[in-house]
Amino acid sequence: MTINFEIPEFIQQQTQMIKWVAESTMRTVARDLDEREHERPTAFVETMWPIVRDQQASALAKLHGTTTEPTEKRERPSTRVLGLMLLIEMLSWGDAGIYLCLPNPSLAGAAIESVGTTEQKMRLLQRFAEGDKPVWGGMAITEPGAGSDNSSMSTTAVFNEETNEWVLNGEKIFITNGKLALEESNGLVIVWATVNKAAGRAGIKSFVVEAGTPGVSIGKVEIKHGIRASDTVSIVFNDARIPADNILGSAEVQASKESKGFQGAMATFDASRPLVAASALGIGRASIEFVKEKLAEHGVTIPYNLPYHKLTAIQRDVLEMEAQWQAVYLLTLRAVVMIDQKQPNSLEASMCKAKAGKAITFITQKAVELLGPMGYTREWLVEKWMRDGKINGIYEGTDQINTLIVARRILGYSRHELA
Questions:
Q1: What is the total count of domains within the chain?
Q2: What amino acid positions are annotated as catalytic residues?
Q3: CB 173 within 8 A of CB 132
Q4: What are the tens digits of pLDDT across the range 352-382?
Q5: What is the three-class DSSP state of 369?
Q6: Which of 120, 143, 222, 263 is the right S-S partner for 116, CB 3.0 to 4.6 Å?
Q7: Is the pLDDT of residue 394 over 70?
Q8: CA of 163: how far to CAs of 158, 166, 240, 241, 244, in Å?
Q9: What is the DSSP string of 162-193?
């Protein structure tokens, strides 16, 4: 695989436009929204919705074969995920919590793209490509008794032949934008549930639950350590009835250890984990830039042409922060380019995600440390970046889980052989 490290000019132009959004509608209200958790970043949402809506409309037009793009643009190598990576990095540089309020299909869209039929993609994603009111999507996997171990999932889906519906019962927790998707917009959430508990992972399927579905209610709204502008909720399913064709993939439970449906659902993470790493990159870059700016105000610069033993402890720390950031950037770049080139990237996705979680924790904590007492106060955003950054090692698979996946892929072990 060949990676061209030159970012296409049109993506650079898009990134510059997003930088303006990050500076004008995110940084300016970041502290205020952090203090008032769950208050909506209205200006950001109103600014970004037309952009997201047009992008989704263009994607659906390509899927339907009705795109009006010039032939040369359609035939050039895909850079869609690369552009998305850099967009997320810039928005997270603005503010990670506000970025998560971006009105878009989010993980729901990734799941539908990975597992859904062409008809499902057109029907379910159309709401994100039209209308004046913003729409959100979400993913519901984690349960009170099932976190990283999906095989212990207890939410059930039973097919009712008389009504031609699936009936869902159970509870999901820690759902990003669940309230936005189901209560405050015409959104949807992808819910993982088991159709056959005895079949283990092979019995787990993905279901599309749309806003307004009877029997679906928002439970606890979490009070969080970071990313406080974004809502994280639990969702309760009490005989929730959804249409028969809102199951993603086949309803058949196969005898293999992991069904194609489950493997397809897991492919969602191969697409989403590099984008979580991209968000970590934005927080990390904000921290590094701020530290260097404050050090420069006191006459401390970072020489890049001197050996380590001639540097001060502070200079060495900053260089290590930058080295960690660059490692995450290159790993993430590889993972997203593989998606654009339609290559399997399960190993690379977990590598960049695991590295990002560890690196962002180091970078943001070191930033607070280097800035002393002021770094620990709320006068500067650096302590907020430390709190926001920590989530990158937790959601979309913890650092430990992703490290385990990397070990299995490299050593050639199954999950039964290396747990």
A1: 3
A2: 396
A3: no
A4: 999 999 999 999 999 999 999 999 999 999 9
A5: helix
A6: 120
A7: yes
A8: 12, 9, 13, 9, 9
A9: TTTEEEEEEEEEEEETHHHHHTSSS-EEEEEE
**Given the DSSP bridges, would you call strands 165-176 and 232-243 parallel, antiparallel or unpaired?**
antiparallel
- CATH code of 57's domain: 1.10.540.10
Q: How far apart are CA 86 and CA 18, in angstroms?
A: 10
Q: Which two tokens mark 390?
A: 């920590």
* pLDDT score, position 268: 81
Q: In the chain, what is the straight-line distance between the N-terminal and C-terminal CA atoms, in Å?
A: 31
Same domain (yes/no): 152, 33:
no
Q: Is the pLDDT of residue 66 over 60?
A: yes
Its domain, for residue 265, covers 260-411
**Token pair in block for residue 13:** 């132009």
151 and 183 assigned to the same domain: yes
Q: 310 and 389 in one domain?
A: yes
For 28-141, list the strands marked E by DSSP.
137-140
- pTM for this one? 0.92
Specify whether the CB–CB gap between 175 and 183 falls below 8 A. no
Strand partners for 137:
188
